[in-house]
Amino acid sequence: MSDLRELYQDVILEHSKAPRNYRELPQANRRAEGYNPLCGDHFTLYVDLEGDRVRDISFQGSGCAISKASASMLTQMVKGKTRAEAQKLFDKFLQLVKGEGNGNQAELGKLAVFSGVCEFPVRVKCATLVWHTLQAALEGKQEAVSTE
Amino acid sequence: MTTVANRLPTEFRPPDVRTGFDVEKVRRDFPILAQRVRGKKLVYLDNAATSQKPQVVIDAISRYYEEGNANIHRGVHYLSEHATEEHEAARKTVQNFVNASNAHEIIFVRGATEGINLVTQTYGRANVNAGDEVLITAMEHHSNIVPWQILCEEKGARLRVAPINDRGELLLDEFEKLLNPRTRIVAVTHVSNALGTVNPIPQIVQIAHQQNIPVLVDGAQAVPHTKVDVQALGVDFYVFSGHKVYAPTGIGVLYGKSALLEAMPPYQGGGDMIRSVSFEKTTYNKLPYKFEAGTPHVAGAIGLGTAIEYLTGLGIDNVANYEHEVLEYATQAITQIPGIRLIGTAARKAGVLSFTLEGIHPHDIGTILDQEGIAIRTGHHCAQPVMQRFGVPATARASFALYNTKEEADALVNGIQKVREVFA
């Protein structure tokens, strides 16, 4: 049960039940779709990009607790950041969920609650789906993103 | 409106005679079941994906490689002759198992998927033309959708889909209405892998044959759970996979009526499927070899034959009866859990319990059950149109085999309670 509690931390469960920034963003100038059909995870990410900076960001869709909480917290963390800053955060996040990091979670802030994911390799794709979707949105890619 | 519920297929009714099916003894035949996973007793409920293998099957495969390995149908030496005999004996075993009229009506393929592709690429390409139609149902596995889509796209034909009701039962009247003079073939599953629904094959065949339309049946999920008699069912083609019926992966069966198989062009070209070859003209081998190009999966066929002997030794009716009891028990137990929604509540079901839990995604259910040693499948089960029909992105699916017990059904229920606790 301890590994499970590590994975399903209260913060993650709370975000999955009451996701933040869960809405369409009418003024969004970037949007991208993340879809893992095997799992049934399907999200749309809306980004209002002003120059190089994410002025506002939101999402909609459905998925497992991990993918949804990840999306919710991504929107909180990325808002106001530049593309380069968002990319750096993504790199750190990937290291965390794959268990490859140096253990320094300071830069990740509250995303550190996803540290339990590395014990569940098949769930890495859930945690990272929306991050890959963000990358696609920032790069202006059209086709849906998948991590399966 | 006529549904499956009031036109019950007879072949799935549990036999009246209660027999002493000794599940604990059966479990000892499957070495993998004794292990612990994640510190817990393994509860394997992913049998619709693949079944575990009894020791006799594992031994038969080992023995073939240790003592009998040779290429078949071509050697003059002892080992080749012996391997050929074993391979053909397995074909005979399959023939008896499904009650085919002839052994040459049994074509060995890699699995149900290849069996369907064989039919679409040979019978289909020869008989389906522009403006023609192929009729399937809304509960098909992707393997009984996509090969037909490929065919229809190539030929400019139309794929029609017979609808199902909210219980997951085929609407037989709607099915009948969709048949017309342009319909060239009907392809339908015997048992739905995502819903567990048992289709009324004899009625489907009867309706289609009234208009001289042949019927292919995907039996991948039926063969482990019920007696299949291709002549009694009246089917023209029947496919199944070995690995779902206690045999190894990579071996499966296409049954086809002789007359149809004879008239069909070959599938793959190569060795074994020819009688004589010159650069000007090749003549094809007789059935079943015409459809078996290349060195076949000899060990797989021997494993399949052994698995079928094992199953028939237990008595397929005893197995069906026992499994029915466990599925009923599990269904009753699981529906007591608050927030459970069963996906697939047909009057006749076999093997499958597909469900969702309110507010909790199936993938999370799967992860938490896995920590309890319980193996289920989550996702779309290669039946995305079924998920769309029921308005869910995915389901959790527990699927049962002859070695599963009521205690394991209890473990599943307790595991789901644990899921609810985590998400409370």
Describe this structure in words.
The complex is a heterodimer of chains A (148) and B (424). Chain A has a three-stranded antiparallel beta sheet with strand order 1-2-3, with helices on one face. Chain A has five helices and three strands. The mean pLDDT of chain A is 93. The radius of gyration of chain A is 14 Å and the shape is globular. Chain A is of the alpha+beta class and 148 residues long. In chain A, α2 (10-17) packs across α3, α3 (65-78) packs parallel to α5 and α4 packs antiparallel against α5 (124-139). The longest helix of chain A has 16 residues, at 83-98. Chain B is 39% helix and 16% strand. Chain B is built from 14 helices and 17 strands. The longest helix of chain B has 21 residues, at 78-98. The model of chain B is unreliable at 1-10 and 13-17 (pLDDT under 50). In chain B, strands 4-10-9-8-7-5-6 form a seven-stranded mixed beta sheet, with helices on both faces. By secondary structure, chain B is α/β, with parallel strands linked by helices. The chains are: A alpha+beta (148), B alpha/beta (424). The A-B interface holds A 1, 3-5, 7-8, 13, 17, 37-42, 62-66, 68, 120, 122-123, 126 and B 359-364, 367-368, 371, 378-380, 384, 387, 392-394, 422-423.
Ordered list of secondary-structure elements with their pairings:
The complex is a heterodimer of chains A (148) and B (424).
Chain A: H1 2-7, H2 10-17, E1 30-36, E2 41-50, E3 53-62, H3 65-78, H4 83-98, H5 124-139
Antiparallel strand pairs in A: 1-2, 2-3
Chain B: H1 23-28, E1 36-37, E2 40-41, E3 43-44, H2 55-68, H3 78-98, E4 106-109, H4 112-127, E5 133-137, H5 146-155, E6 158-162, H6 172-178, E7 183-189, H7 201-210, E8 215-218, H8 230-233, E9 237-241, E10 252-256, H9 258-263, E11 274-277, E12 282-284, H10 298-314, H11 316-335, E13 340-342, E14 352-357, H12 362-371, E15 374-375, E16 377-379, H13 384-390, E17 395-399, H14 406-422
Parallel strand pairs in B: 3-15, 5-6, 5-7, 7-8, 8-9
Antiparallel strand pairs in B: 1-2, 4-10, 9-10, 11-12, 13-14, 14-17, 16-17
